[in-house]
Amino acid sequence: MIKRGRKEGWLNRPIEAFSAWAEFNSVKFNGIRIGPMPGLEHRGSTVIATRTLSGGKEDPLVIVPKDLIISRDNVDFFAKSDRHLKQVLEAAGDFGRTPRGAILIFLLLLATNACPEIENVGVLNPLSEYIKFLPDELLPTFWSEEEQELLTGTSLKPAIRAKMNSLLREFELLRTATESITWCAKYWWDEDDGYLTFQDWMLVDAMYRSRALDFPGIGDCMCPCVDMANHASGQETAALYEADDDGNGLLLLRDQKDISDSGEVSITYGDEKGACENIFSYGFIEDSVTSARAIFLDLTVPDDDPLRTAKLAINTAAPGFRISEVNDRVDWESDFIWLVVINEEDGLDFKLRQTVDGQRDIQAFWKEHELNETSILKDVLSQDPLWDIYQLRAIVLLQSRIEAQLETLQNFGNPAPEVSVGDVRYRLAERLRHLEYETLQKASISFEDQKGALIQSETVRRYLGLTEDIDDAEEVDFS
Question: Which residues, by range, are in coiled-coil regions (predicted)?
Fold first, then answer.
């Protein structure tokens, strides 16, 4: 529906008409316009200065009326006068009450309303026209299988797989929830004449994922005009976004930040985001980036762990660990790892509990201390006399996982014949592999240092039965 609308023109308005839309809907511009940068049209539209802008001396560059912000609350407001939107939101249940679920459903209703073959579905509003100015965001979820193979060994490849599985679950949830609604059955789900496809769900996800901004006082939302600004990090960020006391969206030039006439006004999408996340959500890596910044690697409980099934059943944390690099310093964090490295001999125990509805679930205990959340386990273990032992086990396991990832990156072969080495996606994948490889190498060295320091611990030496001479310590199986 959406892709066809782009091709046929009913969902593809020229950006030159955008200023008229903005003016008609009371968006106020101060010294800026929306459009492509001359000579950089391939980057799409952005915010461009129409005169010299002086930081600290300008009124807001953009004021977006609060009624135009696509937020969870505003979707509810539109649903009050749009029975079709209300029907779908209510049918979607808990998913329709989340910011992401509500906004994606709202975008889908806007596209449905715009389809010329669909009559009397949805209510026209200013945002019905706004989405027609948004380009298709060709994020990695739209890469071909051959192109995704270029990501072998990076943290992006499993992230794409997980995202596609999540999108499929959401799409099937939407289908199951709404197929009994008459107009949905006719226009969305009819086997022969229905217009809605899984790719439409992928497209509204990409629209939201690439433009969602966390506005103070509003939360995750899409703010027309402001969400067309491109990203620049650090001192290169030209402007900030926030809401005023009335809930309107503002774009504010940073103090002491001057922009020349026809210069670009950028915002930050999040300086702390890693190279993987930037490709995943926005489809690019900044030219100035020299570090992967953040990498998430998966972990699992070993198959030979007798408590594996119980551990996985009670786990509430992401099954992996996050490596972060700031100023050449590598750190890591994980709630899951602590569940992996402890066992029954240490004090971990599981009991079956009967619930009020007659079902049975598993309760986890650490030395009689109930573990309701995996996130509390690190704090509990840090008070244990054997804390250094648990840290050593964790470091050894994480280092082994990193070495396996490095080996996969090293063994990556040549791209498939269908992939052009000059293609932007090839260059993105190649750069991501390089950045993550360097960060993982630094992490491996850092972990080796941490392991060496922990081996010197009196607690570790006593636990492992090491003598004063610890030259052979590396031969001990720390797992």
Answer: none
Mean pLDDT of the chain: 92
Contact between 273 and 294 under an 8 Å Cβ cutoff? The reply is yes
Residue pLDDT, tens place only, 183-212: 999 999 999 989 999 999 999 999 999 999
For 332, the enclosing helix (H) or strand (E) is: strand 329-333
* Tens-digit pLDDT profile for residues 417-434: 777 766 889 999 999 999
Residue 437 has pLDDT above 60, yes or no: yes
For residue 470, which phi and psi values (nearest 5 degrees)? -110, 25
Q: Which pLDDT score is estimated for 203?
A: 95
Tokens matching residue 217: 């006082």
Buried b (16+ CB within 10 A) or exposed e, 432-471: bbebbbebbebbbebbeebbeebbeeeebbeeeebeeeee
d(CA 225, CA 68): 10
Start-to-end Cα distance in the chain: 54
**Collapsing DSSP states into helix, strand and coil, what is residue 319?**
coil
Kindly give, in sequence order, each residue whose CB lies less than 8 Å from that of residue 22, ignoring residues fewer than 6 positions away: 29, 34, 224, 225
* Confidence (pLDDT) at 327: 85
Q: How far apart are CA 425 and CA 451, in angstroms?
A: 38
Helix, strand, coil share of the chain (percent; to 5): 45, 15, 40
Q: Distance (Å, rounded) from C-alpha 448 to C-alpha 399?
A: 8
* Cα–Cα nearest to 134, from 239, 6, 38, 21: 6
User: In this structure, are residues 212 and 119 in contact, taking their beta carbons and an 8 Å threshold?
Assistant: no
Confirm if 466 and 454 have CB atoms less than 8 A apart.
no
Residue % of the chain over a pLDDT of 70: 95
Answer whether 268's CB lies under 8 Å from 284's CB.
Answer: no
The C-alpha atoms of residue 126 and residue 131 are separated, in whole angstroms, by 9
Q: For 257-313, write each residue's pLDDT tens digit.
A: 999 999 999 999 998 899 999 999 999 999 888 899 999 999 999 999 999 999 999
Amino acid in position 31 = G
For 262, residues 6+ apart whose C-beta sits below 8 A from its C-beta are: 38, 48, 49, 50
Residue 263 neighbours by CB distance under 10 Å: 15
**pLDDT score at 470:** 46
Q: Specify the amino acid at residue 254.
A: R
Residues 6+ apart with CB under 8 A from 254: 55, 237, 238, 239, 240
- Across 235-259, average pLDDT: 95
**Structural domains for the chain:** 2-253 (3.90.1410.10), 290-341+379-475 (3.90.1420)
Question: In whole angstroms, what is the distance from residue 380 CA to residue 478 CA?
Answer: 21
Token pair, residue 239, equals 């402007």
